[in-house]
Amino acid sequence: MTPPSTILITGASRGIGASIAEHLAAGGHRLALCYRSDRGAADQIAATVQAAGAEAEVFQADMSDPQETRELPARVAARFGGIDAVVGNAGMTKDGPFFTLQADQISSVIRTNLTGTLRLLLGALPFLEQSAAGRIVLVSSLGGVYGTDGQVPYSASKGGLIGVTHWLGELLGPKGIGVNAVAPGFIETDMTAALARERIQPFLDVSALRRIGKPEEIAQAVRFLLEPGYVQSTTIRCDGGFAR
């Protein structure tokens, strides 16, 4: 994005979110790095970003908490003078056979991944509308496109983000606000590291690249979508050519 902008990134203390922050640092942006619990990891990413020439500050917020989520954009805007872009990356999962899941397991995933993101955007929209080039990029998942066995709540929440992207893009396009999403396949993160290799391998066997992706490859797609352009209301699949 040119000129330097204020970008709010949720789930920024590790994995894809941390890589997004690092990729945006070279542009000299002002980065608001949101974390839920690991302040040390968030501070480390902030230090890396600052060393690369960008301004960064960490903000604690639990995306499942309605008040914290709605208030986060205002806190960021108070610190940086506004918000030009939101990257909704925060997410969690509760895996298991669908019929064995408890109601609280399902609701906790939906509350964090989908409802929390919606509340965040509601809080951020007044600031994005004041920006000369507002942008929203939501991090969905291949599970949100196709569904994933053993991850039904996660897939449902990420599929919801795709629907939100398409609707918001139509609503906000006339106002000049770009809205798009990325849908990563299997990426080298703490979340996928917890999965048994036999669960991942069938997906790799039907992908063109036959490998797990890297966080920086998703960050590249996010950086592209943050630039002004003709892409709108679109979900870009970053899944190594997965075919189903």
From TrEMBL:
Quote the Pfam families the UniProt record gives.
adh_short
In alphabetical order, the GO MF annotations are:
oxidoreductase activity
SUPFAM superfamilies in UniProt = NAD(P)-binding Rossmann-fold domains
Listed PANTHER family: 3-OXOACYL-(ACYL-CARRIER-PROTEIN) REDUCTASE, 3-OXOACYL-[ACYL-CARRIER-PROTEIN] REDUCTASE FABG
Q: Which SMART domains does this UniProt record tie to the protein? A: PKS_KR
Family the UniProt entry places it in: Belongs to the short-chain dehydrogenases/reductases (SDR) family.
Tree of life domain: Bacteria
Biological processes per GO annotation? monocarboxylic acid metabolic process
Task: Give the protein name, as stated in the record.
Answer: SDR family oxidoreductase
Q: Does the keyword Oxidoreductase apply?
A: yes
Q: Which organism was this protein described from?
A: Stappia taiwanensis
